[in-house]
């Protein structure tokens, strides 16, 4: 349990850092962050606060899906929401504007870091993140494939975020194409073994 909690925390810290890195590169954000940026523009709330509020809304959507949150679910919302703003402020102190090639490499590094972070926190097996649970809950209730549900959710949030003024760009597309293979590589290597039959195997393709 000590390893699982530590791995969860490290994964969530790195996840928040990866969000900030990709956003700061300004070449397009990860799907849910496109929506967050759009809401930020219209509300004046901080990125972290919007992340917190959307996480809570998504968790409310779990109720009709009969999904049960775990310790990791609550930690996911809290830790990422608290840390993403300080990471964004830290990166905002870098000289501007950075060359396009540097921004591209930075965005790519952030996407890879996000895959690693996802493998860490999902592999800790302490409960799915809000968006992960939304996906798996919809799959269970509808019988649709993970690929179809995942694509539908991300297409919806990206479209809504883009309409609101969020940043859609090449990094958004690269993330959509790369995150599945990245998690497929990292997750099996980072999943903590447990003899507890009540602890289910983590999903291979989290949102």
Provide a descriptive summary of the structure in words:
The protein has 207 residues and is mainly alpha-helical. It has one domain (2-190). It is built from eight helices and no strands. The longest helix is centred in the first third of the chain and has 24 residues, at 2-25. The radius of gyration is 16 Å and the shape is globular.
Low-pLDDT sequence parts: 203-207
Indicate the radius of gyration in whole angstroms: 16 Å
What would you call the structural class?
mainly alpha
Instruction: Give average pLDDT, whole number.
Output: 90
Number of helix segments?
Answer: 8
Assembly state here? single chain
The domain tally reads 1
Strand/helix succession? HHHHHHHH
Question: How many beta strands in the DSSP annotation?
Answer: 0
For the termini, the CA-CA separation is 24 Å
Task: Give the amount of beta strand, in percent.
Answer: under 5%
Level of helix content? over 70%
User: Tell me about the biggest sheet?
Assistant: none
* Outline type: globular
């Amino acid at each position: 349990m000590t390893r699982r909690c530590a791995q969860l925390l490290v994964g969530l810290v790195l996840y928040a850092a990866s969000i900030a890195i990709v956003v700061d590169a300004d070449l397009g954000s990860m799907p849910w962050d496109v929506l967050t940026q759009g809401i930020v523009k219209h509300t004046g709330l901080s990125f972290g606060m919007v992340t917190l509020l959307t996480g809570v809304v998504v968790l409310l959507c779990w109720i009709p899906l009969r999904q049960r949150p775990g310790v990791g679910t609550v930690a996911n919302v809290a830790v990422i929401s608290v840390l993403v703003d300080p990471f964004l402020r830290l990166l905002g102190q870098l000289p501007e504007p950075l060359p396009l090639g540097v921004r591209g490499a930075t965005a790519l590094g952030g996407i890879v870091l996000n895959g690693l972070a996802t493998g860490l926190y999902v592999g800790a097996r302490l409960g799915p993140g809000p968006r992960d649970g939304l996906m798996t809950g919809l799959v269970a209730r509808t019988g649709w494939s993970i690929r179809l549900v995942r694509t539908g959710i991300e297409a919806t949030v990206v479209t809504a975020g883009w309409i609101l003024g969020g940043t859609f760009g090449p990094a958004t597309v690269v993330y959509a194409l790369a995150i599945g293979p990245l998690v497929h590589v990292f997750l099996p290597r980072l999943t903590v073994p447990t003899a507890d039959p009540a602890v289910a195997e983590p999903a291979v393709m989290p949102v």
